[in-house]
Each structure stands twice: as C-alpha cells, then as structure tokens.
Amino acid sequence: MKIIVLGAAGFIGTNLAIKLAENKENEITLVDKNKDFFGYVRKLSLKANIIESDFSEKTDFDSLLSGQEIVYHLVSSTVPTTSNQHIVEELKANV
Predict the structure, then answer these.
(1) In Å, how far are 56, 71, 87, 93 from 4, measured between CA atoms?
(2) Strand-pair category, 2-6 with 48-52
(3) Per-residue pLDDT, 88
C-alpha cells in the first residue's frame, strides 16, 4: 500500500511510521518541514522516503499526493491549547 504521512516527524507521526513499517509491503513517504526532524526515524533505519516541505500555500499537493492510496494528515500550525484563539489562521494553514 502507498502511504504518505504529512507532519510525520512528531510523536504521533513517528510512532505511526514505525507501526506502518512493520508491513514490508507498505511504501511509506514521510513529510515534514525539516528533514533534520527525522533523526530518530533514521536511527531506526525504517524503509521510508523522507520529504521536506513547508506545507505553505505554494506547496504542490497534487504532486506530493499523486499515486498515494492513504494520506495521514498530522500537520498542525498552532499549539492545540491556543488553536481556538487563532481560528482563522488555523483553518487557513490546515485546510
């Protein structure tokens, strides 16, 4: 299965990638805003393609998601505890 995880370098994304990698048939692509955030994933030597993307309005999501069968969206632009204080920015950045 072709799977892409957006916002993959955080706690949830890292653990999801570890679990997905257990199935050797999965083709996993991990995406986050800085490749350096994947230090732990690299130490584990997971079989995954790592892509750096800033998730801005200029991101070519059509190309990024092309051919993927499953998309996990774990990107968040604000701190969850303050997201209700910045609703417009939260929607613009995440939708």
Answers:
(1) 17, 5, 26, 19
(2) unpaired
(3) 81
